[in-house]
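Revision sheet: structure tokens.
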Amino acid sequence: MASNQKRSFLSQIPGYQDNAVLHLIIALAVIYMMMGISWAVIMLVYSDAANFNQYFSGNVALPHLAYFKSHWWTIITYGWFQYPNGFFELLSNMLWLYCFGSVVQMLVGPRQIIPLFAYSLIAGGAVYLAAQLMPGELGKCPPLILGPRAGLMAMATAAVTLTPKYRFYLTETFSIPIMVVAGIFTVLMIFSTGFYIPIMLLLAGGGFAGYAYIKLLQAGYRPGGWIYNLGGKMESLVTPNEQVIRQKKGSRRIEVINKVYSPKTGISQKKIDDILDKINQKGYNSLSAEEKDILVRAGKED
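Predicted:
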């Protein structure tokens, strides 16, 4: 990566560079603002919230199983968006994400946060879709679903799996066990589902993904490694490498110098120098046909 590459203003935030939890929180907040702006524009143009679902939410939210085939990408996108009127839900989600994500990041490093979050969204979404196959009221669910609940549950499960005896110290003498915090979080998440079975199973799917991810890490696997490897390769394709550029420029410069000043095959350097001196003293028109031919051949030869 270029050493003189300009840094974004976000890099000035203390600890930002190596804090994937903060990266994730900022990304979700920016996406929420983009969605809010889109909602405002559509409401100004159409004055009808139904158009927002048609043109925007319907293309990013996880739909009913019957419509998933034509909106297959939503299993990836649904967890990164939230309803534009859900600011306080966004705020609480970010607090929970910071709470559990910081513990996970502290123990396994920042490179595991985003892959863990992304895998859990897909796992939770898959379970949610499969749960709709249950008969009758058991498979009943809202027409669209948005929000990172599966990812949050994965972070909570991952934190508890890594360190079940961890305690959050609010003061030097007062602390709360992570198991208690995770229990409160789980109860609140269940109440937020509206007691729809598929949504509760979405939470279960996200939680299981978090547990499985940590177990894979503890077994020596790196399930998120390929994401960073791919990102590094893509970055290297678009980011100039100063050392390589200098080497290329240097080799090209030497090549040009050698081409101009090195003796040519069958033509001595002294002969070329004599012709150049003659041009300097008397001009190009003073050259004989043979001398002009020598210059032409010298310029064409490598």
